[in-house]
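Anyone able to model this chain together with NAP?
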Amino acid sequence: MRQVALVTGSSRGIGFAAAEALARAGFAVAINGPADDEELRGAVRRIEALHVPVMAAPFDVSDTGVHADWLGRISETLGPLTTLVNNAGVGVLQRGDLLDVTEASWDRCQAINARAVFFLSQVFARHLLAKERPAGLFHSIVNVTSSNAVAVAVARSEYCASKAAAAMVSKALAVRLGPENIAVYDVQPGLIATDMTAPVIEMYRQRAVDGLTLLPRVGEPADMGAIIATLACGKLPYTTGQVISADAGLLVPRF
Ligand SMILES: NC(=O)c1ccc[n+]([C@@H]2O[C@H](COP(=O)([O-])OP(=O)(O)OC[C@H]3O[C@@H](n4cnc5c(N)ncnc54)[C@H](OP(=O)(O)O)[C@@H]3O)[C@@H](O)[C@H]2O)c1
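re: yes, here you go
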């Protein structure tokens, strides 16, 4: 029997790389983005080319009212879900002084980066616990939070707060779902070259070479995909509740 994953925010960036890595590992994959647009359909076609079952699951993760319906549809189409990758995320509406942060930007970060992670995971867990699960499959939730769950970027403080919340959600889920044999991981990417970081990535490429990260380069989405697939395949057996600092040593304390 196949593993079946929903990867949120997988129309591009880290989420797409995760979907691709999972497909290469033999998973059936549901590709998600907030809209049923050409970007989402293009991502589905690229995964189809890997000859695994795939479907589009267009929904806004912050719309909690549709979660249960979509998880049901995915299981009906691809088979029983085994894996949830909570990757969808947004940055701030405007970088700048903490004293100028708007409620709209705070609420958007919380709704997509934290609240959606909690409630989609809740529905996913209920979905798994409602049925007998076949032996031999690895069940997990992989949350993509950020180095900013730990390290302050003061010009994006509302993003940092939302990622810190998601990191605590990961820990709480690990505690609740451990006895149910569902592993939960928190992947904390550092500086990864995607659309989200496009305006600043060239500056960070140089800073990485200059020593900001221990390994002297920024990350690629494929690096994150490999980490997420490793976790979702159960290749770190006898672990749960772990934070994976996917950051080339960015946050290793030194002086
Ligand atoms: N890049 C980095 O350096 C970095 C570092 C630390 C953490 N992260 C985290 O890694 C995750 C992926 O980041 P990325 O760099 O790959 O970002 P990205 O290139 O901006 O891609 C974000 C993805 O999430 C989707 N998305 C956004 N809002 C959504 C919603 N409400 N419902 C469903 N899907 C939604 C986007 O869909 P559309 O294309 O339709 O907008 C897109 O597929 C995020 O959680 C981010 O915070 C990234």
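Residues 90 and 109 are 6 Å apart (CA to CA).
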